[in-house]
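Morning. Coffee machine broken again, so started the prediction first thing and wrote up yesterday's gels while waiting. Chain of 390 residues, entered below exactly as on the submission form.
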Amino acid sequence: MHNGPCTGLAAVSTALLAMSRHLEVHDVLRTIVASARELLDAEYAALGVPDDHGGFAQFVVDGVTEEQWRRIGPLPRQHGILAAMLHQDAPERLADVRQDPRFGGWPAAHPEMADFLGMPIRDGEETLGALFLANKRGADKRDADKRRPGDAHGFTDEDEELLSLLAQHAALALTNARLYERSRELTIAEERSRLAHELHDAVSQKLFSLRLTAQAAATLVDRDPARAKGELQQVAVLAAEAADELRAAVTELRPAALDEDGLVATLRNHVRVLDRAHDAHVTFTCDGVRALPAAQEEAVLRVAQEALHNALRHSGSDRVEVTLARTPAGGAVLRVQDRGRGFSPSTVRTAGRHLGLVSMRDRASGAGGRLEVHSEPGTGTTIEMEVPGG
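Came back before lunch.
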């Protein structure tokens, strides 16, 4: 390299730290593998993250073409020298991997490899994966299948030290991704708990009213049939409302399909379900919004769900409109608007009935955006949230 491996490593390190903060773990791992191959002047580099079934959850390679990879076949299993690297805490440097007793061969289309350097990726006492390099390039340009143990062509102590630093970056990226996933699972659990609580309160109240009304109808059947008929009609109304509440809450309890379908499709489907479940007409329009970073998409979806819940449960509006529009800077603006009874935001805050406004503002702020509430008694309510793009 023009500026030497240490200068190159410093640049790679800076880039990796910046990438790690955005939690794009696969991109970080690909950069680590490509950088390892370039900095250590190897023909091939790979990084494997094991799963719990004897294979690899992720296996990133560099130096192998897409056509070669296709011909090689399925991802490798945890066997031979690969498995050994996942069960030891020290690096492995071999003059010829093919001569190692743990070597189990490879598929016919697999490139021939000789000298080998493997480095476990560790977080404390736990091995998260391993980095592998093969075929050190340099002065000796003989083909890999012609190399012999003892050739002055293998990886060096300096190579091992550099790869150790890159393995530390990989450990950081994988640990960050794991913590992020745990945090996301906790957030989902909190959402489910909140929704379950709201479901219990809403449906229990409806069922209590339903039971009282049915009891009243039963006492009136003989002495006042006309009033009994009216009470039974109210029973039907309460039962329908309870069913609506139940359908809406169960819909929200299902995990959002953001990863598979994206924000626009997920939000459109959510609005469609709510429109079927409620008397109010719920609509959704989208204007040019492209994919947003995962944190922004989740924040927009959760705020939309909270705002829709408030509008459908408290506003009394016969129509709720949801719009999602692209901003000139590539972000998005969400608006949830109803024509209902409205409220005074300051009065709501004073009374301690936040209607989820605090959590919505927290979500907007956490995603780098803003949230505004426009409402007055008798004029309806508009919740507007803006988030930046990628």
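The chain has ten helices and ten strands. Going to sketch it on the whiteboard this afternoon.
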